[in-house]
Amino acid sequence: VQLQASGGGLVQAGGSLRLSCAASERTFATYFMGWFRQAPGKEREFVAAIKLSGSSWYYADSVKGRFTISRDNAKNTVSLQMNSLKPEDTAVYYCAAGRGRGIATVDDFDYWGQGTQVTVSS
């Protein structure tokens, strides 16, 4: 599975961004999808994940109520709407695809996109 993330950029605190991830795989609907982020000097951390049909989703406590993950299986895309952004949200954001061993750790996902930079200024 090839994943291509886009939508990152520079935004002021309190602003919004929408990240998108396009998958090459025609069996996209059989993969759990997730978003992770990695700030400089820190480990990659879980942000959000969504199950196959899009009816179940999970969020890190730090983004609950501000971020929304969604997927469109007809278009092979997964999105992350990020509102009320904070400087601590600054990181490279990665989309990932997995077979459902789990949903919240790096090891649960098998395929990764190249990452897109999100910078939130204070």
Gross morphology = globular
Strand % is over 45%
Radius of gyration: 13 Å
Question: How far is the first residue's CA from the last residue's CA?
Answer: 36 Å
Judged by helices, strands and strand pairing, the structural class is mainly beta
Mean pLDDT: 95
Sequence stretches where pLDDT stays below 50 over 5 or more residues: none
Q: Counting H and I runs of at least 4 residues, what is the number of helices? A: 0
Helix content range of the residues, please?
under 10%
Please trace the helix and strand order, writing H or E for each element.
EEEEEEEEEEE
Number of strands: 11
- Main sheet? 7 strands, mixed
Write the layout of secondary structure elements.
Blueprint: E1 3-6, E2 9-12, E3 17-23, E4 32-38, E5 45-50, E6 57-59, E7 67-72, E8 77-82, E9 91-98, E10 111-112, E11 116-121
Parallel strand pairs: 2-11
Antiparallel strand pairs: 1-3, 3-8, 4-5, 4-9, 5-6, 7-8, 9-10, 9-11
